[in-house]
Every structure is written in structure tokens, then in C-alpha cells.
Design brief:
49% helix; 3-stranded mixed sheet; 234 residues
């Protein structure tokens, strides 16, 4: 609100949505399209004096990757960006640097001291899939990516024919050609589809984390083993 990105009315609406469905306020603001992820990241960075990181261009060191297991990174939605073995200091990117309790749990499970930088939640999830799982991810979308090719037309010269007199026929009104979508409309459609894809990615990632946590709980209580689970899903 101090940065002029959010009104009091929007904040109250987001808080009501958060009380209804739970979750982090920042994510709720983004999902309600009151604030985009980039603006949220930079606002947090300025207010908390925490640097940001562009995970789409950042290449993590193998040492940092080895210092944080993938299941812990997915559980807390963080991504390791640097590691100082001498001081046991692990730097991670997070979209919620104010969640001190979660960061303390992360430090306990990772066995390292934690230092944070700020990044968008969607970029963190893409970085996890790209660097831990070897998936190919992309942040940009084009009309071709969604099967929407912009049509082009070439006007052929009129054919030369001899003049022939034919009986008059009733005139038939030709159907008007379908309007060609304007570039701005295509861009808007691509942006809407991109937002839907991002929402689906977040939902799938959340379901994966929930399933993993449930499996760990069942395994801890001796109700199921990991081998039994893997045998069932194959």
C-alpha cells in the first residue's frame, strides 16, 4: 500500500478471501490479480531490505544444490542459490521472507544457517523442476505455443478470362469473412492462458507437497513403506 500498488479496499477483499480459503496473503493478492508477482517481490525487497534474485537467469552452484534436498526445497517452496560451507550458511530464494517459523523449520531440516533472498513463487517452483528434476520450463508464451497461428493472406492477381454471357441468376449474399483477431486480443488471450497455466502449476506443486507429507507421516507411523507406495503407483 505504501508503494501505491494496493488499495485498502483490495487489501480487505484479499484478507476476506484468505480467511475463507487460507493460504498466504501475498499469494492471494496475486491470484486475485490485485498485484503481479514481480511487483510483490520488489515491494517486499524494498520494505524488508532483502535483495531479490532472478531465478530464470541464475545458475545455482552444485554445492548449494547438494546442501538442500529436493523434498525439503519443495516442502518449503525455497530454492538454494548459494552455500558457504565454512560458515554453514545456506542462501535460499523464498517468496515469503516474513514467515520466520517456516524458515526456522527449514534451518533445522537442512542443518544449516539460513539466509534469504526474495523471488516469485512461480519462478521458485520452475527452478526446482528445472534444476532438481531436469524438466524444461519456460516463462514466456507465444500464440504458436498455444496453437494460435496468426493468419497471413496473399492477394492473387485476377485471372484473365473471356467475356461470356450467361443467364442471370438470383444474387446470393456471400458470408462476411471471419474477423481476424487483432494483435492486442491475441496478447490478452496468451496472458490469460499463461496465468491459467501458472495457477495449474502451483496447484500441482501444492498437491505434490501434500502427498509427499502424507507419505512421510504414514511411513513414520509404520503404516506404509516407501517401497509399498512405489509398487502401487507403478
Amino acid at each position: 500500500m505504501d508503494a501505491g500498488l494496493l488499495t485498502e479496499t483490495q487489501l480487505r477483499s484479499a484478507l476476506a478471501e484468505q480467511r475463507k480459503w487460507g493460504g498466504r496473503l501475498g499469494l492471494t493478492l496475486v491470484q486475485m490479480r490485485f498485484v503481479d508477482e514481480s511487483s510483490m517481490v520488489h515491494a517486499l525487497s524494498r520494505q524488508l531490505a532483502i535483495p531479490t534474485v532472478d531465478l530464470e537467469r541464475h545458475s545455482p552452484s552444485p554445492v548449494a544444490m547438494q546442501a538442500l534436498r529436493v523434498d525439503i526445497a519443495e516442502r518449503y517452496t525455497v530454492f538454494p542459490t548459494a552455500f558457504d560451507p565454512a560458515n554453514k550458511l545456506l542462501t535460499v530464494a523464498t517468496a515469503d521472507p516474513t514467515n520466520v517459523e517456516s524458515l526456522q523449520e527449514l534451518a533445522f531440516h537442512a542443518g544449516q544457517r539460513i539466509q534469504v533472498v526474495v523471488a516469485a513463487a512461480s519462478s521458485i517452483e520452475r527452478a526446482i523442476r528445472r534444476h532438481y528434476h531436469g524438466e524444461i520450463t519456460s516463462t514466456t508464451a507465444t500464440p504458436l505455443a498455444f496453437g494460435m497461428d496468426e493468419p497471413t493472406f496473399e492477394l492473387a492477381p485476377p485471372a484473365e478470362t473471356d467475356t461470356v454471357l450467361v443467364p442471370a441468376r438470383p444474387s446470393v449474399q456471400q458470408a462476411a469473412p471471419a474477423p481476424v483477431p487483432r494483435e492486442s486480443e491475441l496478447v490478452q488471450r496468451v496472458e490469460e492462458l499463461s496465468q491459467q497455466v501458472s495457477s495449474l502449476e502451483r496447484m500441482v506443486a501444492q498437491q505434490a507437497r501434500s502427498l509427499r507429507a502424507m507419505l512421510e507421516l504414514l511411513e513414520t507411523r509404520g503404516l506404509v513403506t516407501r517401497d509399498d507406495y512405489l509398487a502401487k503407483v507403478r
